[in-house]
Amino acid sequence: MPRFSANLGFLWPDRPLLDRIDAAAAAGFRAIELHWPYDVSAHRVKDRCAEHGLVLLGLNTPVGQSEKGEFGLGAVPGRQADFEVGFQQALEWGRTAGASVIHVMAGVVAPQEKHAGRSVLVENLRKAASRAPEMMLVLEGINQRDRPGYFYSTIGEKAEIINEVDAPNVKIMFDVYHVGVSEGDIFGKLATHLPIIGHVQIAAVPSRAEPDEGEIHYANVFRELDRLGYRGWVGCEYKPRAATDSGLGWARTLGTAIS
Ligand SMILES: O=C(O)[C@H](O)C(=O)CO
Ligand SMILES: [Mg+2]
């Protein structure tokens, strides 16, 4: 069965980041992943993870100007210089904290700019990948219902970009929730793209709650990941229905364990 990581962007939202790390350890998680931890000291996060023996996986590149609707800058024409600054910030924070993964966020791009956006993203990724050879850079499609206009929502689009970038440390973040909402055929896509899948995330479809309700039977997804030989982590990136701790029973219901 998979190894689970607690996504502290969504889990234990009622407390500060360092307390979320404590909560993840107490719940039995052996790894954590973050969204945008930049206002917390990377040294303190590193120390707190070390206290608990937790692996810190990764974080997201900054969103840019969220008040203007930006949600990442990787594929946004004209914002290359700001992307570089943001990537450097993610890299420095991640290196200091001991992370190994950076989710390079592509961003929202107007339909008429998509063609240019693709070249911008490929160029940005090539530079980023060579600047951070020890990090795995992951690309994630975000479904159009949650984030209209996001640069990509399908696994195929990301696979094409990765092929074009042609760097060994650029991979897919396969968020089963987004794939389920956007296109389905989870098993087919896992099998086709397994060699370039660097990280997996889960949540119920369509609710994005604990992975024990809705359209996807996650016990089967976990078995399929095992059958395919996936050896990476599975990030629990769901929005708890109520208190995070009271929802953790999903693991036992699905025949697995958090740790
Ligand atoms: O929303 C998601 O699925 C992400 O993984 C993310 O980090 C940006 O929101
Ligand atoms: Mg995700």
Main pleated-sheet profile: 9 strands, parallel
The hetero compounds bound to this protein are: ligand LJYKPCYY, magnesium ion
The amount of helix comes to 25-40%
* Tally of domains: 1
Q: How large is the radius of gyration?
A: 17 Å
Which strand order does the major sheet show? 3-2-1-9-8-7-6-5-4
CATH topology: TIM Barrel
Overall shape: it is globular
Give the low-confidence spans: none
Order of helices and strands: EHEHEEHEHEHEHHEHEH
Please identify the structural class as seen in this structure: alpha/beta
How many helices does DSSP assign?
9
Mean pLDDT: 98
In the CATH hierarchy, what is the superfamily? Divalent-metal-dependent TIM barrel enzymes
What is the total tally of β strands? 9
Describe the oligomeric state of these chains in a short phrase.
Answer: single chain
- The end-to-end distance, rounded to whole angstroms, is 10 Å
- What is the CATH C level class, in words? Alpha Beta
- Which architecture would the CATH scheme give at its second level? Alpha-Beta Barrel
Strand content: 5-15%
